[in-house]
Protein 1
Amino acid sequence: MSSPSSPAYSRLLSSLRRAHVLESVASVLGWDEQVNLPEGSVACRAEQMTVLAEILHAAATDPDFDAALRELEATPGALEPDASVIVRLARRDFDRAVRLPSRFVAEKARLQSEAYHAWAENRRNSTFSPYAPYLEQHLALAREEAVFQGWGDRAYDYAIDRHDPGMTTERVDALFTELKIGLLPLVREIVAGTRPTAPGLFRGFPVAGQQAFLREVTAALGFDYRRGRIDVSLHPFCGGSPADVRMTTRFDVDNPLDSLFSSIHETGHGLYEQGLRAEHLGTPLGQSVGMGVHESQSRLWENQVSRSRAFWTHFESRFRAHFPEQTAAVDSETLYRAINAVEPTLIRVDSDEVTYNLHILLRFEIEQRLFRGDLKVADLPAAWNALSTELLGLTPPSDRLGVLQDVHWSGGAFGYFPSYCIGNMMAAQLWYTALAAFPGLEADFARGDFSRLLGWLRTEIHHQGRRYDTQELVLRVTGEPLSPRHLLRYLRERYLPLADARR
């Protein structure tokens, strides 16, 4: 429906869009920091990010922003449905922003920049102790922020809600407990029936060829390279804004599947951002729901779609055309099994989708203990190693392969990790809903046509913006509450036949 044309609503939209532009500038600067920043410019970038955070906070807490909201809230009946959603969520965002002192916002922005570079250096050197003070500061700021927001006695709930609105520690714990009960025996059964991928199966895949192939694949999935790009970083991510999506990946000449699937994963994020409705950009209806929903999009494209036989029915010949010598001795079945190999690993981003969620259960347990005060930052490596041994059967030989492997805590992104598992559950639930809605969907993939699935996701997920929170959206689209049942079903249906065939 059309938006009201009142002066107050126009002022509100103007304030929202200005804040959006500033956020997009900050996001591109953050992308550049991980992709292009010269080593000697770290301090300069920290200063830039600090000043920009102060400017953004000032825009988000502009008194005229509040005045426009008050005018609109005084006559709620005059608001059309879309405008009502925008006003309700803009009020929530304004109130959260105004509770944070400017000095706190600046301090957090500076720490995020400094801690990222400290993480990168100490990860490279596998030295945790010099990095620990940055985590201590981030943890202190996270607790302080929860106090500012009135969540002082539920700091981890606040951290989770920031990334997945409407979710709580209790709800996530219930979902993860149910998943763990079904997942652990399933992992054991699949791993027991699986032969490891032959060493040296993939060797010498030129980076230029990998870049060309992954661009071909991601464009076929629907990513618009006129409004986005992909570059190289230490840790793959997706940033920028809906009008300027910045994705990254990384390359290994002896592991071409890593760059491919990490790129497809980030493309799922990029498709979500590009699918947000242009007329609502800058408003809550032009923003993603949260990270769990975001991860559902990336994991759906990465796993259910791109690891399927139908997908490779279409793309195998193209893969071989890019790498004729490297794939000459690899038959189709061996290639498919390598794509869907199940081999427990220490590194989350390298893990298969059967064992992936064990990595998230580990991080969720550690974050809860940190926020409860049961675990000190200095004791993180030992706690991490013990849980890795318990859940994965693997003990990290170094901190680089253990507690230092992920970038998230360097940005103070506590409560983010559960989003990956929530996203996996949602992806499987969406997958079965889509299969029921569109008979012959996988035959589309075999022809290289992904338009029906993307169009459905555009309508059901992307175009909704933040109209619904995570759990409301899942219920609306799939007809039932979020549940791990569908993920367990999917893993059984895809991987048990492969394991049985290998025995």
Note: The mean pLDDT is 95.
Protein 2
Amino acid sequence: MANVTLLNSDIEIRAQMALSTSPIFQLRDLRAERDEDGLILKGRVTSFYFKQVAQELVRNAVPKTNVINHIQVD
């Protein structure tokens, strides 16, 4: 059971690192949170393009993980 918890936190850390090191500054303020359904992306960006880029960035960082995009576009 401890190994599963470590794996889950590793997924969240890898996703958050991918966002925080993005060359797109708006993506650096987004959050990735783990839950039972997958990884939830939260925060705000100014375009649907940035919303999609954030989602694909996280998908590449943590493959085989369900990414749920709750990012809001202002």
Note: The helical segments are 2-20, 48-61.
Protein 3
Amino acid sequence: MTKYEVEEKTVEYLKTVFDPEIPVNVWDLGMIYKIDVKETAEPADGKDFDVDIDMTFTAPNCPAADFILEDIQQKLEGISAVKTVNVNVVFEPEWNKDMMSEEAKLDLGFM
């Protein structure tokens, strides 16, 4: 699997992670700020890449934060070429509804 394929698969998997209180995935909500796929220093068993994610939550005290983080971790570790996943939670810039995709805004009635 190439770096580009891992990046594509990462986005595909992130689109399956939902905040249980909002019927939209974390990707379309605009909660993912950065995806960094790097070749691992010590590849083993075809696991050639490490994935670092910078993300935020819609609110700093999000009650579903642990659930969402665990779901992301498990799903991305399921990508065959991924050795490690590191999810960094950041609050700068602060999330706002303008970060959502057009589809998410439509689904939530903001358009």
Note: Residues 28 and 101 are 5 Å apart (CA to CA).
